[in-house]
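seq:
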Amino acid sequence: MFRTGTLSRRARQWSLLQQRAVAAYLGLAIGDALGATVEFMTPREIEATMGRHEQLTGGGWLRLKPGQVTDDTTMSLALGESILQTGGVDGLAAAQAFDQWMRSKPVDIGATVRRGIVHFRNTGETEVPYSEQSASNGSCMRLLPVVLGYYQRPETEMAQALLVQGRLTHHNALAEAGSLCIARMLRMALQGADLPQMLQGPIAQLLAEYEEFAFRRRRPLGNPSGYIVESLRVVFELFVDTDSLQSCLVETVNRGGDADTTGAIAGMLAGARYGLEAIPRSWYDRLDPEIAERCIAQALALLEL
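struct:
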């Protein structure tokens, strides 16, 4: 299953919850690395260029190495480190972590995220003004550390923490509602809930308030932009209509568009739902080993908060 017997031996000592948490974090990273290759391509372009994109080959417009991740994973890790240092989501600590992350010259950074961090640098404020233009997926892609760090706490505390970290860069009702839905789905998956429970719970609640997130329309959703509505419609559709982690991620990233982020979000959900044994060996073996180890260590540490 894994690159060496080390992780599999460690996994046997973990609880089912710990295994699901680790799988969610590895799923995020793998989905990010898988999707980055075809980011900004249309489904037709993907098919014409490579037929079916199914492996961590690197390349893409960022010219990545095989298994290399992007901002979706590294920003999540930066947020997770700040949570571990302060015992929760602290606006100032998270802002400083994001600022340091951006100074490290990450391989990619979204425009809304960049504006938010620059706003903090210039003003010291840990909340950007409300904007209709910040309804993108950047605050959603990095929320897994919040879900894990607040797993032992009431859901209301997790929801408040999501607002604090999200409004550092994305202060928008759609971004917040979509992020809360994904966080609730992750929490339920970690608890072992099944798909019907997620459909009847968080997804139904989101659609009741914001019908624009409705999915499973007549035409398959393809080429999603970074707009949170387009991203999550694709994630919802493929998470519901596939039956394995591998098929969920392959189908998601082959829709193209903002594929590293839809891959990352689908990956964390599928990882939590299907567990470690569902991760293909070829994917894990190709994932950047330093990133893999950081994801594993952080997932376990956050659960202990």
